Amino acid sequence: MVLQFIISGALVGFVVGATGVGGGSLMTPILTLAFGVPAQVAVGTDLLFACVTKSSGAFSYARRGHIPWSIVLWLSLGSVPAALATLAALRLWHPEPTQFAALVRPALGFALLLTAGALVFREQIQSLGRRVAVVGSTYAVAGISLGLNPDDADVAWRRARTLATGALIGTLVTITSVGAGAVGVVALFFLFPTLPASKLVGADIVHAVPLTLVAGLGHAALGTVDWPMLLGLLIGSLPAIHLGAAVAGRVPERVLRAMLASMLGLVGARLVWI
């Protein structure tokens, strides 16, 4: 059985290396649909799997100086408390496996459909963010009403939106293990459309490390982490990520994103409506 997890980890690791997304979006559905792993165990195990795999990417981006730390901070101020609150709610509820599966299945399907849409419409969402960013009247009115100048109001508004985005991602990731990848990146493209893509991707990856660590350890405290399965997934994924990165430039990114979005959309639709 461990061999199957090693192979699955290698498959997901290769996709992550080639596309930059797809970790939680692929791993949790594979564990639940292909191997019949209970939903809560699949989510808890995948969270720690994501934490380890994203740590190497975070180190690489940080070493190149591609991390806008202020964005990471405000995302984390929203996501980590939201993750802790979600874990506390799960602990108080203490659902039976069937109850938790009934919650996770449609939530996971929704998260996968959201991820697929984010992959397909990333450019359009970023373009919309640019159009919204040039509208300064709202910020000016807010600045006057709060006694701030428009520039201060602009900063406060961006921080509030980043905080709220982090809270939404934190809740979604804690319940489904999905959302810290493509959804987070596209949300940042909308919030900060003028920043280079490398910095936004770096912010998303670094932010995902503390979020998945907190959420994963919380699931471990709830007893929903399979440690041997986690080890097998990591053994397969870590070398495969580098292999995927090596071939990434040989296939157009648009093609890779379209293929991944189609697959996630089909799986998400199955989880929601079947």
Q: What's this, in brief?
A:
This protein is mainly alpha-helical and 274 residues long. The chain is built from twelve helices and no strands. α3 (39-63) runs antiparallel to α10 (197-221) and α9 (182-191) packs across α10 (197-221).
Notes on the structure:
By secondary structure, the protein is an all-alpha fold. The protein contains 12 helices and no strands. It has helices at 2-19, 23-34, 39-63, 69-93, 97-120, 122-133, 137-146, 150-176, 182-191, 197-221, 227-247, 253-273. α6 packs parallel to α9. It is globular, with a radius of gyration of 19 Å. It starts with a helix and ends with a helix. Mean pLDDT is 80; it is low at 139-146.
Topology:
Elements: H1 2-19, H2 23-34, H3 39-63, H4 69-93, H5 97-120, H6 122-133, H7 137-146, H8 150-176, H9 182-191, H10 197-221, H11 227-247, H12 253-273
Please bin the fraction of helical residues: over 70%
In angstroms, what is the radius of gyration? Answer: 19 Å
List segments where confidence is low: pLDDT < 50 over at least 5 consecutive residues.
Answer: 139-146
**Strand element count:** 0
Distance between the termini: 27 Å
Shape: globular
The major beta sheet can be summarized as: none
Indicate the structural class. Answer: mainly alpha
Mean pLDDT: 80
Number of helices in the DSSP assignment: 12
Proportion of residues in extended strands? under 5%
Provide the succession of SSEs.
HHHHHHHHHHHH
